């Protein structure tokens, strides 16, 4: 979540990267000599620079500030934020600051219609707003301006409001599409069919959001609904019609299944399942319990309440943490290491489960299919309760500790025998392909820690496979029938928010790397090209200086780099001495 009190405010920046010259509706680029020059940290910059407050408030485009320096830019965004002006252009890029409060009027239906009218009329410049970004993309698509395919990249730190921004853009695009389909309705059955098809596609695309968030989002210290994966949604169009959508996901933080940083939660869906079993909505094997009469009556009410809660969730955080239940009696939270910490109330998880179930229905998951998915989730909860015993004699291997109950339940739910599961967790096997056959060497694990590591890996792989499966099924439902059915797309990329903790995991390194690569692509596609265009037009521009972390990227992903060495070590499948590995990386990078 964005915090405006920081001395170096970090903003959610919603960047539209369109790979051709700016369309007529976006603000003009600055052309005066020296205007692009804003060297950060330059000792020659006058730190007392100030722009009158009313000029800052009126300024809808940062590139039009009379003085363009880092501090004036930050001041402008801050002043506008304090006046509830949450959006500001920076050329064709939109800078969005998380309002941290509900602002329904900003995203009202009427706003959609008004931006649509303004875009159609070619009004320029459009007021800075997330709908303006979506509107420009939609207008360029429908008028065949510029490139066939476009992408809107939303980037920023965790909690900055990326997912909300992407959601609002999706709503804008669906709403506009719906209005167009309805307005073109004639009495012919083909136009009714077309409108019905568009409505069905929209409903499915919109239903995919809560489903993906249930499986891929979790409460973190920064964001109660943090996306723990990156998502690219491609809206597929043919002529004027939305024909379908596909979802690509990246870098699911699967380690969260077995370990959550202090004060954070596991993926929402696991909490929903736990709450669902306690509330008798799900049976102990994950199948749906028979809905009792009063629950049926409550169901609709809860769903509505949950929808409202989602809007206001953030603002109830403190209150809802006070409701935090220890849940020591929970059989699914026995084992400390894999325990799912709980911050939300049981009620909010139950309401969220209803939303997930409704989304599964909307996306045509059959009852059997839903039961199978929930079985795997309950199996994961059971796997988390398995513990191991080290062998008393050197000859024997580790064994599963206690009465094996969790092992029995998990194996039954996963459709394997308890022996198979126990062997998979306690015996290391290496397959060596020879000329005409594969030889498998088995070695019982002697250390409890090794078995725990195998269990963690098993749970993470299982969750990743389930997540990929859900995405694949959603895509089957939402994608256009075939490649012939669509000719262009608008992509909405909601990348995983970058973060820097005191200790950063490998996942965090990959996330930050992905963000840095995107930033690099943006610099290449936008700043370099813009400079080139200005030079070609004979406009004198001081060379634009910007922070460029390409050196860090080379150190990470070149042929001799951190990632190359890590890959090599992984392929060797041997225990790695941390100090030696660090020295190796340092030696390799010395000359790069
Ligand atoms: N435009 C907005 N209007 C009102 N509230 C917002 C808006 N954008 C974000 N928020 C609030 O901030 C919270 C965090 O936003 P969001 O989940 O979009 O962040 P994010 O950038 O996607 O973070 P992460 O990288 O952790 O997924 C939202 O749940 C919502 O409460
Ligand atoms: Mg997000």
From TrEMBL:
The keyword Nucleotide-binding applies. Keywords: Actin-binding, ATP-binding, Motor protein, Myosin, Nucleotide-binding. ATP binds at residues 156-163. GO terms for cellular component: cytoplasm; membrane; myosin complex. One of its GO terms (biological process) is actin filament organization. Residues 294-314 have a biased composition (Basic and acidic residues). Residues 1-20 have a biased composition (Polar residues). Residues 57-592 form the Myosin motor domain. InterPro entries: Kinesin_motor_dom_sf (IPR036961), Myosin_head_motor_dom-like (IPR001609), P-loop_NTPase (IPR027417). Residues 1-47, 288-314 are annotated as: Disordered. One of its GO terms (molecular function) is ATP binding. Pfam families: Myosin_head. Belongs to the TRAFAC class myosin-kinesin ATPase superfamily. Myosin family. This is Unconventional myosin-XIX-like. It comes from Hirondellea gigas.
């Amino acid at each position: 979540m964005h915090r405006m009190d920081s001395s170096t405010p970090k903003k959610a920046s919603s960047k539209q990267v369109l790979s051709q010259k700016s369309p007529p509706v976006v603000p003009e680029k600055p052309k005066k000599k020296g205007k692009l020059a804003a060297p950060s940290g330059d000792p020659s910059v006058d730190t007392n620079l100030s722009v009158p407050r009313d000029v800052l408030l009126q300024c809808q485009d940062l590139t039009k500030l009379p003085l363009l320096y880092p501090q004036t830019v930050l001041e402008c965004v801050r002043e506008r934020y304090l006046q509830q002006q949450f959006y500001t252009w920076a050329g064709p890029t939109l800078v969005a600051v998380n309002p941290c409060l509900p602002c329904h009027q900003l995203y009202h239906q009427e706003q959609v219609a008004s931006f649509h009218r303004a875009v159609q009329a070619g009004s320029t410049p459009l007021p800075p707003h997330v709908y303006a970004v979506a509107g420009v993309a939609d207008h360029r698509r429908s008028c065949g301006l510029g490139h066939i395919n476009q992408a809107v990249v939303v980037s920023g730190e965790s909690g900055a409001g990326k997912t909300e921004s992407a959601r609002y853009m999706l709503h804008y695009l669906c709403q506009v599409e719906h209005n167009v389909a309805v307005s073109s309705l004639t009495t012919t059955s083909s136009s009714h069919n077309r409108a019905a098809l568009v409505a069905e596609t929209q409903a499915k695309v919109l239903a995919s959001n809560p489903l993906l968030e249930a499986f891929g989002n979790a409460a973190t210290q920064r964001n109660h609904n943090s996306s723990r994966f990156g998502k690219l949604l491609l809206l597929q169009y043919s002529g004027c019609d939305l024909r379908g959508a596909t979802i690509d996901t990246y870098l699911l933080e699967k380690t969260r299944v077995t370990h959550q940083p202090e004060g954070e939660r596991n993926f929402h869906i696991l909490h929903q399942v736990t709450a669902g079993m306690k509330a008798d909505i799900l049976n102990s094997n994950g199948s749906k319990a028979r809905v009792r009469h009063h629950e049926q009556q409550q169901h609709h009410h809860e769903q509505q309440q949950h929808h409202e809660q989602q809007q206001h969730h953030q603002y109830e955080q403190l209150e809802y943490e006070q409701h935090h239940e220890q849940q020591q009696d929970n059989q699914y939270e026995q084992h400390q290491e894999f325990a799912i910490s709980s911050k939300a109330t049981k009620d909010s998880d139950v309401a969220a489960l209803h939303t997930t179930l409704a989304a599964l229905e909307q996306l045509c998951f059959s009852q059997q299919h839903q039961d199978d998915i929930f079985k795997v989730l309950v199996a994961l909860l059971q796997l988390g309760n398995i513990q191991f015993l080290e062998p008393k004699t050197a000859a024997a291997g580790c064994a599963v500790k206690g009465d094996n109950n969790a092992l029995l339940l998990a194996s039954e739910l996963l459709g394997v025998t308890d022996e198979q599961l126990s062997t998979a967790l306690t015996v290391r096997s290496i397959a060596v392909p020879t000329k005409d056959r594969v030889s498998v060497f088995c070695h019982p694990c002697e250390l409890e820690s090794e078995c725990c590591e195998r269990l963690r890996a098993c749970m993470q792989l299982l969750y990743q496979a389930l997540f990929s499966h859900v995405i694949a099924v959603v895509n089957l439902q939402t994608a256009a029938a075939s490649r012939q059915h669509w000719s262009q797309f608008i992509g909405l990329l909601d990348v995983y928010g970058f973060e820097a903790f005191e200790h950063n995991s490998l996942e965090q390194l990959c996330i930050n790397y992905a963000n840095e690569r995107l930033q690099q692509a943006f610099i290449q596609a936008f700043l370099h090209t813009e400079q080139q265009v200005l030079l070609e037009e004979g406009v004198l521009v001081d060379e634009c200086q910007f922070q460029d972390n390409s050196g860090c990227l080379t150190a990470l992903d070149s042929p001799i780099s951190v990632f190359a060495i890590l890959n090599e070590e992984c392929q060797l499948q041997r225990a790695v001495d941390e100090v030696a590995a660090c020295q190796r990386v340092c030696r390799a990078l010395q000359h790069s």
